[in-house]
Amino acid sequence: KSEVNFTLLQSWIQRLIVEDGANLYRYKGILAVKGMDQKFVFQGVGMLFSGDFQSFMWKPNETRESCFVFIGKNLDLPLLKMGFEACVVDRPLRFKVGDMVMANVGSFKKGKIIKHWDEGNAYRIELQDAKKTNIWAPVDIDPYVRAP
Fold first, then answer.
1. What is the pLDDT of residues 34-77, one digit of tens each?
2. Side-chain half-sphere of 48: how many Cα atoms within 13 Å?
3. Which of 8, 125, 139, 143 has the largest CB neighbor count within 10 A?
4. Is the pTM of this model over 0.85?
């Protein structure tokens, strides 16, 4: 019963396909992505991966959980489990809506947190520039967003 950070999930799936693709016969799953109302459905064979957010939504009383199946040879099950668990959103975000932060847009710029878990990203940030530009911090770590 866990929701995942989409950016971390994408990195994990990419690594999995590149490193273990030859040993993966088939895989499929449905994932609950934090900040998204749609279910993420994926499937693949070897190094061929297909996945997208579907039109069907999580129901209000439905348990948001991620489940998947991997079929293959010589798969390192503990490593698969650890890799997935690293994508799970299991702690509160560091900054509150309204907090001023420094956001990385190539260099760090002053911004204000305006939303949590927007479209699968940890933060939506409004830069303190003339245009009030909105950007996203996909992961709640200092290289993306830090205290001023």
1. 999 999 999 999 999 999 998 889 999 999 999 999 999 999 98
2. 3
3. 125
4. no
Q: Which residue has the tokens 């009383």?
A: 61
User: How far is 145 from 125, CA to CA, in rounded Å?
Assistant: 9
DSSP-derived 3-state class of residue 26: strand
How buried is 70 (Cβ within 10 angstroms: 0-12 exposed, 13-18 middle, 19+ buried)? middle
3-state secondary structure 37-96: CEEEEEEEECCEEEEEEEEEECCCCCCCCCEEEEEECCCCHHHHHHHHHCCECCCCCCCC
d(CA 82, CA 75): 13
- Return d(Cα 41, Cα 117) in angstroms, integer: 19
Asked if 85 contacts 77 with a C-beta cutoff of 8 angstroms, the reply is: no
Single-letter code of the amino acid located at 49? F
Q: Using CA atoms, how far apart are residues 52 and 126, in angstroms rounded to an integer?
A: 27
Tokens standing for residue 142: 């200092």
Residues in the chain: 148
Token digits of residue 45:
């064979």
